[in-house]
Design goal:
α3 runs antiparallel to α5 and α5 runs parallel beside α7. It is globular, with a radius of gyration of 18 Å. It has about 240 residues and is α/β, with parallel strands linked by helices. α7 links the parallel β3 (about 125-130) and β4 (about 155-160). Helices cover about 45% and strands about 15% of the residues. It contains nine helices and eight strands. The strands form two sheets. Strands 4-3-2-5-6-7 form a six-stranded parallel beta sheet, sandwiched between helices.
């Protein structure tokens, strides 16, 4: 069962996978795209600061400080299979996805209800932010290369597990609130994962579970969180111009 949600807030923070967009697209399209290119990236650009930092993080997280490029690629592949939300994995995926979007190899996916509603909320003066386990680079590419063109103009800021922290920890949401300058009680978080909703609520935010048919968490226990099957079920009060 889902609800009709009414909220008076200043800003909405959006999860991507399972919320604005299909998990299946990420798993079936984006994951294989990056996985096929990890080896070439490490071989050709391993000395670049962002790549080198991510590789060092992979070695540290795997407990293998002397791992060579082939072993790092193997670890990355295993993490993909586990759908592990590891920051260095997301960094390297984000680099490859951003380049794929820029080349036209990739076009992002949004559920049919999302873009129209985001445009309406933005026009009404509601600030929009993104908080995803995918890197900021990947988020930027995702919103810049939607089926309806560049949507980055709708978004006031992007957060990931590196600049905000893990998505199931309340401190991450406190960090985002501080960064945006929006009072916690005036922030609304939309996600398909109950643990993330719990963390946002613990930080004083409002939170709504997005329950989309066919998504991995569609049948999860959302506890006391309001639930919506589509963004069109969420009504936000327009901000006055004063």
């Amino acid at each position: 069962m889902t609800d009709r949600i009414h909220a008076d807030v200043d800003a909405v923070v959006l999860d991507i996978e399972g919320t604005t967009s299909a998990t299946g697209f990420v798993v079936d399209v984006l994951y294989p795209y990056a996985r096929a290119r990890f080896g070439a990236l490490l071989a050709a650009r391993g000395a670049e600061p962002e790549v080198a930092r991510a590789v060092a993080q992979v070695r540290a997280e795997a407990g293998e400080p002397d791992a060579d490029a082939a072993r790092v690629e193997e670890v990355l592949g295993r993490w993909v299979d586990e759908d592990r939300k590891a920051t260095p994995l997301k960094t390297l995926q984000g680099i490859l996805w951003a380049e794929g979007f820029a080349r036209g190899d990739l076009v992002s996916h949004f559920y049919p209800d999302v873009i129209e509603v985001l445009r309406r909320w933005h026009a009404d003066g509601v600030r929009l932010y993104v908080y995803s386990s995918g890197s900021v680079a990947a988020q930027r590419a995702w919103f810049a290369h939607s089926p309806e063109g560049d949507l980055l103009g709708l978004v006031s800021g992007l957060y990931d597990t590196e600049n905000a922290g893990p998505k199931q920890e309340a401190d991450s949401y406190r960090t985002i609130a501080s960064s945006t300058g929006v009072a916690p009680e005036r922030l609304l978080f939309l996600s398909d994962r109950p643990g993330e909703l719990d963390a946002a609520r613990a930080a004083g935010w409002r939170a709504v579970g997005v329950r989309r048919a066919g998504e991995p968490y569609a049948d999860a226990d959302f506890g006391g969180h309001p639930r919506a099957a589509a963004f069109s079920q969420i009504s936000l009060a327009a901000r006055s111009s004063s």
